[in-house]
Every structure is written in structure tokens, then in C-alpha cells.
Amino acid sequence: MDNKQISKAVIKRLPRYYRYLGELMQDGVERISSNELSEKMKVTASQIRQDLNNFGGFGQQGYGYNVSFLYNEIAKILGIDKQHNLIIIGAGNLGQAIANYTNFERRGFMIKGMFDVNPRLIGMTVRGIEIYPVEQLERFIKENDVQIAALTIPKERAEEMAEKLVSYGVKAIWNFAHTDLNLPSDVVVENVHLSESLMRLSYKVSNMKK
Amino acid sequence: MDNKQISKAVIKRLPRYYRYLGELMQDGVERISSNELSEKMKVTASQIRQDLNNFGGFGQQGYGYNVSFLYNEIAKILGIDKQHNLIIIGAGNLGQAIANYTNFERRGFMIKGMFDVNPRLIGMTVRGIEIYPVEQLERFIKENDVQIAALTIPKERAEEMAEKLVSYGVKAIWNFAHTDLNLPSDVVVENVHLSESLMRLSYKVSNMKK
User: Fold this and answer.
1) Nearest to B192 among A41, A194, A207 (CB)
2) Which of A37, A117, A200, B93 has its CA 20 to 30 A from that of B60?
3) ipTM score assigned to the predicted complex
4) A64 to chain B nearest CA, in Å?
5) Contact at 8 Å (CB) between A195 and B15?
6) Do B100 and A92 make contact, defined as CB atoms within 8 angstroms?
7) Confidence class of residue B60 from pLDDT cuts 50, 70 and 90?
8) Which of B162, B105, B109, B50 has its CA nearest to residue A203?
9) CA-to-CA distance for A95 and A75, rounded, in angstroms?
10) pTM score, whole prediction
């Protein structure tokens, strides 16, 4: 199977399929039809069939989808069947909130350490994850094979820090700073811009009332 | 101007225009051409012209866009020219991180209070915002004209809490719980699913390496 053929829109929807399939497995469901899945996910059955047909031969007429098989295939496509080492830059509330998500580890994202410039935070731990000074970043990234850095620092310092991280070998930035990072094209950036999410919500509320 | 005519895709991009225009204003820039804006935002100039033409007559040939006018018009469309009262359900790290964002207030989102079930947190404040017991939710929502609730509680309790909030008069849920909420169609839901964001990042990293 060639991942390259799968459209961006489908990829965007895969994590949601993955979540529903995981919940079905927890409930002991072994197989499910596109109609049943459609009802649960509030997506049309034809959309589901189209999306999942991308992976070829998972569904069978009269049988439906094998839940755990599909779950594992989607994990492979998303690359979460392998371990990814992650660090968190910025040990404030948001950084600590991320460190506290045990779910990420279940999906193969191992949080190796947190980093901060505030000397009062250095040496503290969050759920066993230690906070280190930023001066140790370069060595730490190399010694721990860190691929992903979550950036939860103010936007003023985000770009400079991201460039440093990339020069130390980080391949992907999970960017919570409210700015766009201009990085080399072989660096992956996934933005979480909370202000923009809140503005979209505001738009929907404002247009609801009319 | 009828907001209804603006496509969803354009609305999704508006917060980003808003952010760049705000930064230009801070830098004292009064007008900008679509070409200059294009270079800054890494979007084609024709995309910018198409998007902004939706609002009619903002740009003028040979003059460009009036930055503050456009900024204010976008604010109106997004509904952030008015005040929205917001509460945070769940005073853990993520709830506290949200309470600490001063940016939200500058955009008209006033955080009126936080709520938690943990008795040890009750009465504490985060940046002057008090944490109240959930028993006071109904009265608080009515007395403070609360429209928006940020939901930063575990997914197991999210749906039940969301239904309560709606019954108390909340019109919009900013949902950080990793589950889909099934609410009446006149309730606005904006999801921030961090796990899914991280999986999309994982997908991009996995496909980068090949």
C-alpha cells in the first residue's frame, strides 16, 4: 500500500476513525458494518466506505469491518505503531498539561523530558518527567533520539527556539505558540492555535443568534 | 454584507488574517498590498484577493488594503468586536493554561470563573479568576450571562457535563475532552482534540522519512 495515494482529507479523518475503533475494541466489538459505524460517528456510510476503501479489502460484503485489523492498519498508516520520542519546551501550565496526558504514551509518544528557562522549575518532575535547563537541549536531543518537540513558549521566542531545535536534530515541531514558524521544508510543523479555534467558535456563536 | 455567503473555508482562514493584520498594526503599518501580505503569510496573492473580496471594496487598486479597517471588519465578522463571557470547566493544568491566556481577553473573551469538583481547588484563583464548586454552575451561568464554556475535563464526564451546561443556558462548548459531544443542533461545539493533532504530526513525520 502506498500512503502517497491517500488524500489529505482522508488522512485528516483517520485519527477519528482510530479513536472510534479503539472504543469499539474496548467494548469487545469484533466487527462492524459501515452502517453501524456511520450511526456512531455521524458520518454517512458511503463516506466511511470511500475513506476505508483507500486501504483496500478491509471491509467484506455481509461481514463488515474487522475492528482490530482496521485499528492496527490505521495505526501503521499514522505511524503510531512505532515509538516517537518527544520533549516539551516550556514547563508552564500548557506544557504540564501535555506532560500529564497518559494517552499520548499509549499511542507511542514517549515524553522524555521538559525544558524551561525558569531556574525555579529545573529539577522538578511532572508525572515522573523531569524539567531540565534549556542549556542541556542539544545533548539531550542527541542522546535520547528525540524526533518531536512540543513548543509551549511565548510566540516572541518561538521561531528562534524552533530553529535551534531543528539544528539539534528535531524533525517535527508541535507548535502551540501563536505564530507561524518559518522552517526548512523537511521539518514537519503541526500548529495548535487556540486563539484561532476560539475565534471560529465566536463566529459560529455570532451567526447562530441571527 | 451577508455573512451567510462567505464559505466555510474562508471563515477558517479569517483568524489568521486577523492575526497578521494585528501584527501589522502593532508595527505601525497603515496599508498593505495583496502582494506584500502574500509574502508575509506564504499564501498566494490571488488567494488573498479572492478571500478578502468576499467582504467587498476593502482593497483598492494601487492603494492596497487599509490595515486597521480590514482588521476591524474581520473582527465584526468573527463576532469578536463584542464581549463574550466564558467559564472554564475543569481547573487542572489545561484549564489553568487557558485561564492564563491574556490574549483571549484582548479579543473580547472574558473568563468569568473556573469550576472543579476537587474541593482542594475551590476558592483558589488563577490570574484573579476564582475556582468555584460545580454545584454553583447553574446560578453562576445565569447571573453572569455566560455564553461559552471551555470543557477541560476527562472524556468520561464530558457529555453529561455538556448537557448540564446547555440546560443552564450555555450556547457554545469549546471542547478539549477527547470525545465527540452529541448536543442539540443549536449548540455550537468547537473541538480541540490534541491526540488527533499529534497523530497528524506523526503521519507527516512517518511519511517524511521515506
Assistant:
1) A194
2) A200
3) 0.89
4) 23
5) yes
6) yes
7) low
8) B109
9) 25
10) 0.89
